[in-house]
Amino acid sequence: MEKIRSTTVLAVQHNGEIAIGADGQATMGNTVAKNNVKKIRKLLDGKVVTGFAGSTADAFSLLDRFEEKLNAYGGNMKRGAIELAKDWRTDRYLRKLEAMLITASKEEILVVSGTGDVLEPENGVAAIGSGSMYAQAAAIALKKHAPQLTAEEIVREALNIAADICIYTNHNLIVEKL
Questions:
Q1: Catalytic annotation on 31?
Q2: Mean pLDDT, residues 86-98 taken together
Q3: Looking at its record, which EC class is this enzyme (predicted)?
């Protein structure tokens, strides 16, 4: 079975705004399987936006569990993410899931992984997926050298730069602002 690779997800906090975006590519081996996968989801009536990379079925399982945690903790994103990471690390079923999440609210960005990590980026830029390092480097440079750009503009430009470099990332972008 060929490994399915998919996506680049990027979140940026800049000038009091937060934007999160992702490309739409899913690749199976050396073939593009789909160009328009939607990897960004709104939770809690749009108060929290989440992007995922990795196995789609696994990511949806995690998104469902994360939404349950958000509801259980009154919409507290950080607490919900920590509780999800604890379950993900200790639950035998969840431990096998192969995906990562970036989640954002108006106040913060978090990266949640299956190794129990809940990371808040210190520079206001978080990225996951195949082209993550390209998108992250571009976003950090844009924040530093083009401070007049909005968070949404930085996300779009950085994802386009990643798509120009990474064969697992395309230009079919979905970007949400908070």
A1: no
A2: 74
A3: hydrolase
From the list 7, 8, 27, 103, the catalytic residue is 7
Res 50 pLDDT > 80 = yes
**What are 6's two structure tokens?**
């998919």
Q: Structure tokens of 155?
A: 């996300």
Counting every residue, how long is the chain? 178
82: exposed, middle or buried (Cβ count in 10 Å: 0-12, 13-18, 19+): middle
The annotation status of 169 as a binding-site residue, yes or no, is yes
Burial 138-177 (b: 16+ CB within 10 A, else e): bbbebbeeeeebebbbbbbbbbbbbbeebebbbebbbbbe
SS3 of 149, please?
coil
Say how many C-beta atoms besides its own lie within 10 A of residue 97's C-beta.
19
User: Scanning the structure block, which residue is given the tokens 């503009």?
Assistant: 153
pTM: predicted TM-score of the whole model, two decimal places:
0.93
Ligand-binding annotation for 166, yes or no, is yes
* Tens-digit pLDDT profile for residues 100-151: 899 999 999 999 987 778 999 989 999 999 999 999 999 999 999 999 999 9
